[in-house]
User: Fold this.
Amino acid sequence: MNKKRFLALCAVFALGAGFLGGCGEGGGTSSGISSEPQVKLWSAPALEKIMRDDVIEDTDPASLTIELCKNEVEGAQFIITPENGYKVGFFDVEISELTNADGESIPRDAVKIYLQKYINVVNEIGSNPDLHAGYIPDSILPFDVAKEYGENTVKGVNQGVYVTVETQPDTAAGEYTGICTVTVDGKAYTLPVSVTVWNFAISEEVHTQSLFQIWQDELMNGELDSSDEMYEVYYDKLADYRVSATNLPGDDTLEGFVAAAQEAAEDPRISAFAMPYTSVYIEGVGSDIDYDMTERYLKGLIYASTEEVNLLDKMVYYFGALIDEPQYTNSYDVAGRIFDGINALEEKIAADLDEEGFFDDKSTEFREHMLDTLLNIPNILTTYHTPEYFDDAELTYCPLFNEFDGEENMAVYQQCKEANGSIWWYGCMGPCHPYPSYHQDDNLLGARILGIMQFDYGIDGNLYWAVNCYSKQTSGTGDALRPADPYEDASRWFPDWPTSGEGYLFYPGLDYGLDEPVASLRLESVRDGMEDYEYLYELDRLTEGLSGYYGTEITTDAMVSNLYDRLYHGVQYIPDNENFLEVRRELASLIEQCGADNKLVLNGIEYAGDSATLRFLAAEGYSVTVNGEAVSGNVQGSGRSYVYTMRMDQPSNSFEIALTKDGKTTEVSVFAGGRTEIVSTLDEEGDTAILHPNDPAVEISHNADPAYA
Assistant:
């Protein structure tokens, strides 16, 4: 058809029939004739990456469901999928006010809408069964900006929309509802929105440390601006995600560093920062650091400290350019020399402070805390345990995530922590799925699970080498650099390296006229993991008080170890999003229970044969039933202890606890598992069908060989 004639026909149809849809690319079928929009709106867990061009038949009806506590950010997503060759011209998204039954609301500015942008991942790790090469969602562009730039359309099979809700410490607990209106080529679709706010808050303060490197010179390749001001924009944006940049913002002077450290000390979002340093070359010795500079900077922080604020509390050493990954750079000698030099310098400064009379007008507690902090500043080395090089050195080992896998390895690093005060870990190119990672071709759960693992394993900090690698290396030599298109080039490393997304969690805002970077779904998961850590931190705080109430030791680990087991084995995580969300609900329920008046404490489930036994504690003065049966407890401190055993004979078994006082009943459900059946033999091949492993990676098959009986 002649193009002019085609456009004229569109105009006639539009005037005659009043069509709202567009012509050509939008508002029509593949034949170009305008029609009613043919799209499917559907939902998937926010942790699930829905690739742009994957055809997915089995989908859930579109809705936005978010569960979170107070002072948290959590997301949800829905997908727009055209059908029958329909081409979407444009779509818009609006969300109504979210209100609860009491008329309270979550402010509109606490709800953010983003367009998921896709990046073409051409390299495959090959070990992740859920994702493959192709267009994977990663950057999240504010939706109003997407509309401004005409990107509110569907370019492939699917288009994801990501929505976040942020609560405040004083947000009322309960369920908030509203409507999400999606308008596709003039036709409006409505999606229900449900936000459940749990009755506890996580802290403003971040309680696990991190150092994520912002490469200031790389800002030029993405933002065309590598100024101190732009660095500070990135630093502040990273802090909004509860992540600390390696280096403080500001100028390179001592005064500028101290001023920035004072701001960091007062900022609850900042958990750590690294001491700046200068490298020197000593004839006949080799590379080292300028200890005179380090001494000036350490003393600058100490003399600016007060009784209330110790400026060394968040500081660490990380001499990455000199001693990073010595197993590859053979810099063991340099590292050992620096560790010895730093230890000697700290001892010297401690003596100087007394001689200079620094503590004369200070309290004994201040002096003890300052000296303890000074002499135990973490000195981070990115390598695995190497006692042959660092047997007596005071250092903080920081191996890759996977180095902690296995009980023997975990025990080694716990000993390192006991000896030197702290232990960190990091990811850099590796490891790959099924270990945690920030790779684009890994599940988002791979980035999020690190928060819970860090708490479980007592790991003090997380290091990451770059969040803004905006140039692409064309060889493995490190010499040839060319600017990348950050929104198109998934791999910033040399072409045959398989880990896409490595080295960046941001995209430059310059492409869209923004004065701040564009975040990624992976960075959203990093923040969510940091908030999951705070869940456990809050539970730990509550269990300390409960230990006193019940007159017995109550530990967080005893309460949640069974939850850990459902999420990962060692450091290999179970890639089941629904399972993770269910565990998170149960964790939230535990926190609510421990903070409630009934002081309910679940001490775990014990399994024997085809039965399960639950032990729990509750405050005095409550009548208690489990599965409808009244149970009486024994006195335990100021409360009571209870024991209840049930048969595991149903497809799904749970302990239904009801606690009643003054006419008010609180109900708590504790999932115990599926039906348990005692089997003495598995004689036939079909007998194995009754076995259902919790780990989807485990396969069970029948072996007729009597040797395996």
Observations:
- Residues 1-25, 29-33 have pLDDT under 50 and may be disordered.
- The first strand starts at residue 39 and ends at 44.
